[in-house]
Automatic annotation (TrEMBL):
A cellular-component GO term for this protein: plasma membrane
Domain GtrA/DPMS transmembrane: 18-108
Domain of life according to the entry: Bacteria
GO biological process: polysaccharide biosynthetic process
Organism: Dyadobacter jiangsuensis
UniProt family annotation: Belongs to the GtrA family.
Lineage start: Bacteria, Pseudomonadati, Bacteroidota, Cytophagia, Cytophagales
Protein name (database record): Putative flippase GtrA
Family annotation (InterPro entries): GtrA_CellWall_Glycosyl, GtrA_DPMS_TM
Primary location class: membrane
Pfam families: GtrA_DPMS_TM
Amino acid sequence: MTQIKQNKIFNPKDIIAYFLVAGTGALIQLVSSSLIQDWFNISWSDSIVPSYIIGFFWGFTLTKLFAFDARRSNQTRREMVKFLMVSMVSLFITWAFTIGSSKFLIDYLGMEVYKVKFSFAKKEVNVTEMVCYVIGMGFSFVSNYILHKTFTFKSTGFYNRLKVLIR
């Protein structure tokens, strides 16, 4: 019975651990997106990819160590390759749902752009863009959890076949 419980995709312990790890990654993405916009004077939509890349490096380490109990797997290189593949899919999902939800909310529903000015930070935050970014990250969270649980941190034989193809 315990073997069946541990193999379930939606194991509550894994979901909670992954949620905490992914939440840290999401926070890193949001902060780095804001900083990238300010430092490099680029648009919100253009900051999605570089902030995702910054979050990627933190994400692999935290996910391996804490989310799926893979710290002693001795397959870090294999997991990195698979994590990169999943992350490329996830980047597209994050970008597509972030931009798509923004277009849907603003263009189709006519939602106004809400901005909040923080006097202590002298920073104006576009709440509408932040909500859309969180929507994109939410869809990415679901796909990442399933793919990492069933592919990245599980021995599937894919990595060995990939090595043969590369040689």
